[in-house]
């Protein structure tokens, strides 16, 4: 039953089984009420407008699209829902980008259920939550290059510009295919590069094609 202390939540994840599991986990806490779900970036804003949530739990990989692209739009909607990014991407560059775009929290999917609830408590209290292990990595992480790309993004861009497929990049960098796809989507959005030739031009400008 909904009360003044209920957190209305929308789940945005492209895997229906993940959404089902999250719904069950969250609604075991009487403060949580899942009011909507979506698995497509194009439907996130509409779902939020229809359901008026207090919180959006957002994955980065929504199909082949970058869920972080929805953050500025969501923050501008009536009610200004809080946003907790829940993802498998453990690259601190993604956490930096998410928080830089205005997300209020960043948590990995392999976190314990209790940590997810704790993250929601902190975010809904008006603070920012960053999974501790990622916070430690960000503290050690070297400053980003002048082009604003993280080291992992530069590696992916270099290999894309040299004609490697997503699968080849995943193999070479020891990361998942979905991580490569998310990096590729982020690079296209950040660089305004919609064609491979534009990615090649960007890599050349940044001096990445001179690297081995």
Automatic annotation (TrEMBL):
The keyword Phosphoprotein applies. The modification 4-aspartylphosphate is found at residue 59. Pfam families: GerE, Response_reg. Residues 142-207 form the HTH luxR-type domain. Keywords: DNA-binding, Phosphoprotein. Residues 8-124 form the Response regulatory domain. InterPro entries: CheY-like_superfamily, NreC/VraR/RcsB-like_REC, Sig_transdc_resp-reg_C-effctor, Sig_transdc_resp-reg_receiver, Tscrpt_reg_LuxR_C, WalR-like. It comes from the Bacteria. PANTHER family: TWO-COMPONENT RESPONSE REGULATOR (PTHR43214). This is Two-component system response regulator NreC. It comes from Kineosporia succinea.
């Amino acid at each position: 039953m909904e009360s003044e202390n209920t957190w209305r939540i929308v789940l945005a994840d492209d895997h229906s089984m993940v959404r089902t599991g999250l719904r069950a986990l969250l609604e075991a806490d009487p403060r949580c009420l899942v009011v909507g779900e979506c698995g497509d970036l194009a439907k996130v804003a509409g779902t939020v407008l229809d359901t008026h949530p207090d919180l959006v739990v957002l994955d980065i990989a929504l199909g082949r699209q970058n869920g972080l692209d929805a953050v500025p739009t969501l923050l501008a909607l009536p009610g200004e829902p809080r946003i907790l990014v829940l993802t498998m991407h453990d690259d601190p560059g993604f956490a930096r980008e998410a928080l830089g775009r205005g997300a209020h929290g960043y948590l990995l999917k392999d976190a314990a259920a209790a940590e997810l609830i704790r993250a929601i408590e902190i975010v809904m209290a008006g603070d920012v939550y960053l999974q501790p292990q990622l916070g430690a990595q960000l503290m050690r992480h070297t400053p980003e290059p002048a082009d604003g790309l993280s080291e992992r993004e530069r590696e992916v861009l270099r290999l894309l510009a040299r004609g490697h497929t997503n699968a080849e990049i995943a193999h070479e960098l020891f990361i998942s295919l979905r991580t490569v796809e998310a990096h590729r989507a982020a690079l296209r959005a950040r660089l305004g590069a919609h064609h491979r030739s534009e990615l090649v031009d960007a890599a050349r400008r940044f001096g990445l094609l001179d690297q081995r």
